[in-house]
Design a protein that fits this description.
By secondary structure, the protein is an all-beta fold. The protein has one domain: ATP Synthase, domain 1 (Sandwich), CATH 2.60.15. It contains no helices and seven strands. Strand 1 and strand 2 form a beta hairpin. It is globular, with a radius of gyration of 11 Å. Its main location: membrane. Keywords: ATP synthesis, CF(1), Ion transport, Membrane, Transport.
Length: 86
Amino acid sequence: MALTVTLVSAEEEVWHGEASLVVAKTVEGEIGFMTGHEPVLAILAEGQVRITQADGSKVVASAQDGFLSMEGDELTIVAGHAALQS
């Protein structure tokens, strides 16, 4: 089973898909999410969102000014500014 991840900025959906692991920076520090994680609502800090897809490939985005929400196996990251990094 995989996490369903949605990363959006104020302007657009930046990334949506399934992942085995997501690490994001909050004002409390970095937090990692896998399937079965307890529900979380946290304030997003400026930094990277690192997404490991089920096949092991990585997606990295920069994000700031927002929040993240984990409910069930769905992680939603809403940022004022977010962009994929190459």
